[in-house]
## 1
Amino acid sequence: MNRRIRVVLADDEPVILRGLKKLISWDALGLDIVGEACDGTELKTLIDDCSPDLVISDISMPGFTGIDIIRDIHESGRPIKVVFISAYQEFTYARQAVQYGALDYLVKPVNTGQLEQVVGKAVAVIRQESEEVRNKEKLKSYERKNESVTIEQLLEQITDGSRSAAAALARMGNTAISRYATVCALETVEYSGQPSRWEERERKLVEFALSNIIRETVEGAGSGYVFRKGERFCILLQHEHEEEPERLVEDLHGKINRFLKLAVSIGIGRPVNGIEEAAESYRSALKALKSAYFTGLDRVITAETGEPAEPQVTLAELTAAQAGVADALKSLDREQLTERAGTLLDKIRGLSAGNRNQAVSYVYNVIIQLDQELADYGADAGLHGPDHQPLLERLAEAPAYTVVQQIFMEVLHRMADQLAGQAGAKELPQLSQVKAYVEQHYADNITLESTAALVYMNPYYFSSFFKKHTGQNFKNYITEVRMGHALRLLLQTDLMVYEIAEQVGYNNARHFSDMFKKKFGRLPQEYKQSLRQ
């Protein structure tokens, strides 16, 4: 349906104005008279206020002449058509009117046929030009959309390492000459690799609002591009100073929190020398973003503040920390348990080197080993979790390492409660004390009597007590500990067999060798040589 055309009439004679209004059926022709002026000054004001499509005016009026008015319209570039009416067929006026784009020039008195013909011509021209303008706008919109899609595709390829894509973007005239290029990657905390709680419609609305605020912020800063890469929004910035990306991204993060009430994590890559090397910056941005699992969600993370790329802890340190947690559980010392569990979790984080799956795996394996070690004491780690949800699943779905830590502490405190509720719970600290004593003094002459005295028991009761809690007699336990250390020394050092025997508490090397063969099926030297074959 065609829109109606807006008309302003102007003449310094009221009679002429009234006649023009009655001369033809404006409504039937699809025109609305939106204003009437009695002089040039009033006409100028009406044109500004009413935004007409067509002006029909006397060419000679007080204030401003018709030529003044059409010159102003011409210079301002407004698409207003003008038809002049005059009492005289003034050649100079007519020539100037045509020069500034007047549609027609009528001499008074104007009859119905003349006016209808001129107005019909004006309507046709206005509608045709309106259609052309609409088509041009559609074409420009289409071209902009296509160019936008092309640019996004090139940016994706650039961050994948395509130098030809970088050259193509430069040929399009869409790159600036700058000292640095930096890629930033953004994801909502809602996403973070987990199933979304949003319905499809809600998700699209959130993404639309997020896209708008990112684009407004980046475009306001100057040289930058926003594009999608998978589930993430990415930003490629071209800048002169290294600190610029962090300043812009901190501002963006604050706006998203403030206006959208949305939690997002943003990783800032390392600055590189030009968009040709943007893939390197993108990789470091992703690495920074992934470290949000450890460093904290809903924040800005730079490549420098992310998790270290290499393990900062050894497996031996992890094993020692785990043993400390087990001892704290056995001794039922809650304060010590909390402290040692914190140390263990820090060791796991350091050993994981920013790898989320690695951290979950280490924590779960520790829980399994504690469950096995303390099963005989009546403790159950609850590997199937509450509501029958497997514990491993809970750990894997945790959005951040802090949540993994909370789950781990829940497991430890539940095990501590179970141990404290056992009938022999009061004896557990004594058992832990005995084991720690053996671990420290296995090279000495440890006897049943001396160890029983350590925990204020008589030898007969202590022997029964130890077997009840460990499933083996005390003498065999000492042998197990000594053989474990003997094997370590045999494999990790160049000590002679008699030297190893002395270090693990045997004065007779032959007796030591017999005990070693009984435990491992071969004499010490045979065992070591078999591993070299």
## 2
Amino acid sequence: MNNVLSILIFLPLVAAFAIIMLPAGFKEKFKFIALGTSVVQFFISLLVYLDFNNTAAFAGVNKESQFQYIEKVSWIRLDLGSIGKLEIDYLLGIDGISMPFLILSALVMFVATLASWEIKTNLKAFFALLLLLNTAVMGVFCALDFFLFYIFYELMLLPLYFLIGMWGGVRREYAAIKFFLYTLFGSVFMLLVIIGLYFSVLNPATGNHTFNMILMMDPGNYMDGSIFSSVANQNLLGISARLLAFIVLFIAFAIKVPIVPLHTWLPDAHVEAPTPVSIILAGLLLKVGGYGIIRVCYSIFPDAAIQSSWWIGLIGVVSIIYGALNALAQTDLKKLIAYSSVSHMGFVLLGVASATTEGVSGGILQMISHGGLSAMLFFLVGMLYDRVHDREIANFRGLASVMPQFTTFIMIAFFASLGLPGFSAFMAEAFTLIGAFTSQEVNGFLPRWMAIGGSIGILLSAAYFLWTLQRMFFGQPRLKGGEEWLTRLKDVTTREKLALVPLAVLALALGIFPSLIFNKMNASVLAFIQLISG
């Protein structure tokens, strides 16, 4: 399966060019081109999953030879005189940490494309931007050269800015600019760290400086006296250079997670974004942040990560409780789900900060689980808004008798998200809390009260989901729009079932058989724990 990762990445880009080249008379075909692309992507990612070797010999993480589906091509070579040669490679590869995100990305993009059926204006630009975003997301999860990673990472900003700013709600320009400035703020300083790393690391095979992320994980590849050498222990502004670089990178990725207090762009972006973009924001963009913390922050600066573990765990607990309390106070259903995302992504930080096998495994599973469930929730909210153009919880009551199939799907999504046993979120949060609880004995990084704080977040999530369910769906039908709304509130269509059923199956399958993910990533997680512990 040569070049399979390149096919996964650039297939949407080819489809985007095809849409751009087609005349406007084919505008009704654009959505089918985008949908067909996402279906092909999903089946390719499924083949990668089935073919993936989960043994320790292919653990990856910090050994290039152990990554799978490696594609390495000399991309940019430039003689810089006395400095040496500029060495940038087109380097792709996956291990057990990145592989699950390929399937998640393909599935979420499929659901987002189905949600795009309600988009009626400027279809050529919309689907071209959606496919460009697809390419960027896939590229982030496959890139192993930091320069290439940064290109894909930044490429996500452009389509998202226009998708929110052109097809969003009343305050779409404000939300788009706020999102762009927040994420760009982190990215600019990230670039400075990348440049510093480049001039600190040497490729032992060529003797040149390199952007190879895997080589950056080996302390032996750092030049003596370089700014990020662990031996030299250089200081900047009175802080260890490695710790400062870790903090800069962590903030850049944490903005996307997002953590408290860097989360304020998220509710505005979600509320104003069209349904397909909300699905991608919650299902994938937030996961890019979590993935970046694991792949970049922890793997390249494990010493600084361990030094900061208590603070990262605390941020995770604060995000869990603060996000849940805010969700409990919301009157807009979409905003409630946006704040619940802040809460649920806090478990990812808590699990990773524990630096235990259970905690990291639970954190990664939480990202996969939340990716599917948040996509399902935002799709369901979008269905309601498309029918009556209202999301206020108080304006709906007794929907169970009006839309029984819709109610069934939303109950699955709510109960799965609050951590009911048998669903994916239960397994993810349970393993995360086990890791956080045992961290004090295993490595002493996190106190046990942090695990208790995470448990309080689960109780709060049950409160806001069950209260919302009781207010909107039970009792006699009482709708703000009266009879007019009753005629417009049609139950789930075939197209909508096509999007919702796979997400419901994913939540149930990972809840009953978490080994579907755990078995594939266990060797990589063990290698990751060994890397940061060493």
